Amino acid sequence: MGSLPVFDDVVAAAARIRGVVHRTPVLRSRLIDEQVGASLYFKAETFQRVGAFKFRGAVNALARLDAGQRQRGVVAFSSGNHAQAMALASKLAGIPAVIVMPSDAPAIKLAATRSYGAEVVTFDRFTESREAIGAALAQERGLTLIPPFDHPDIIAGQGTAALELFEDCGPLDALIAPVGGGGLLAGSALAAQGLSPQCRIIGAEPAAGDDARQSLAAGRIVRIEVPHTIADGAQTTAIGSLTFPILQAHVEAIVPIKDEALVAAMGLLAERMKILVEPTGCLGFATALRGGLGLEGKRVGIILSGGNIDLLRFAQLISDAKVA
Question: Which end of the chain is more exposed for a tag (fewer CB within 10 A), N or C?
Fold first, then answer.
């Protein structure tokens, strides 16, 4: 799988992906700052290509393949955003791609992945193992397996989002990022090491699937059943063997967030900032809204990790919350 990435790998990734990956904006809201009692800097990966930060890691990982690997192609597994990222990055690089996706993945993500020209293989996320299916395809077809988070080039690539945030805003007192498998949070921690070493690193995950919190508390990787949550991008059953030691070394806390809080955060971002953020992408902001972390008066970075949610689904979630 490779050795643990370090800050220099994030810097190298930033240079490698420049010109292919968008440098996304950092957004502010005076009203939200007043509500939270802190200065929030939103890194809007909703405006990234494929609508999510995952494109960063995909482009970086593919750029590191040798000629033989590029010719044979790649296989990846994902609930949606890594799938789309690998599909588009592979298309741009002229590399064949097979993507293993759950049959109940959001229709918008399945459609986008196919539209980029990737071969999609579906499975039942509650009864089948995506890791086993991906490994079997890699073996049978000679493909290079690029997992969604537990890969040094993926972690380094994802860290470029936080790297840009620190470059644009300077040192921050805290940075909050979603955690599913831990690639984004681990990469963010590495970026902070180099550019804002005093920054507190905080993760946010669905309360229904708090395996990262459990893992840090237990001092070992804890595996859970597939969680039932609207945050489909964080429906992982365990964090990675590479991401875990990085989180252990640098992350102060993992905060569990309920689905209702994600919907409230989605609505607030749409109303106040006019941006559409998917439930997983709202994990960090919902954590700041929740309070209790001593963020008052501080400069806080929030990574809005993606915006891939069907408009009807978004409207239904907001509508149901208002009725309730």
Answer: C
> Residue ranges of the domains in the chain?
7-54+153-323, 55-145
Task: Looking at 29-129, list the stretches that DSSP marks H as alpha helix, in order from N- to C-terminal side.
Answer: 30-36, 54-63, 67-72, 81-93, 107-115
8 Å CB contact between 85 and 57: yes
- The mean per-residue pLDDT over the stretch 53-80 comes to 94
The answer to whether the predicted template modeling score (pTM) of the entire model surpasses 0.90 is yes
Closest CA to 190 of 161, 159, 214: 159
Q: Which amino acid is at 282?
A: C
Interval 214-224 mean pLDDT: 97
68 burial class (0-12, 13-18, 19+ CB within 10 angstroms)?
exposed
Q: Choosing from 54, 80, 150, 187, which is the catalytic residue?
A: 54
**Catalytic residue flag (residue 211):** yes
**Residue 209 is a catalytic residue:** yes
Is 79 known to be catalytic?
A: yes
| pLDDT score, position 107 | 83
Please pick, among 43, 305, 306, 307, the residue that the annotation labels catalytic: 305
- Same CATH fold assignment for domains 7-54+153-323 and 55-145: yes
Catalytic residue among 73, 157, 209, 284: 209
CATH of range 55-145; options 3.40.920.10, 3.40.50.620, 3.40.50.1100, 3.30.470.20: 3.40.50.1100
Which of 9, 45, 153, 205 is catalytic? The answer is 205
Among residues 45, 153, 211, 259, the one annotated as catalytic is: 211
Which has the closest alpha carbon to 303: 174, 151, 146? 174
User: What is the three-class DSSP state of 170?
Assistant: coil
H/E element, 243: helix 243-250
Place of tokens 């741009």: 92
Catalytic residue of the set 39, 79, 90, 196: 79
- CATH T-level fold of 7-54+153-323: Rossmann fold (3.40.50)
Task: Return the percentage of the chain with pLDDT > 70, whole number.
Answer: 99
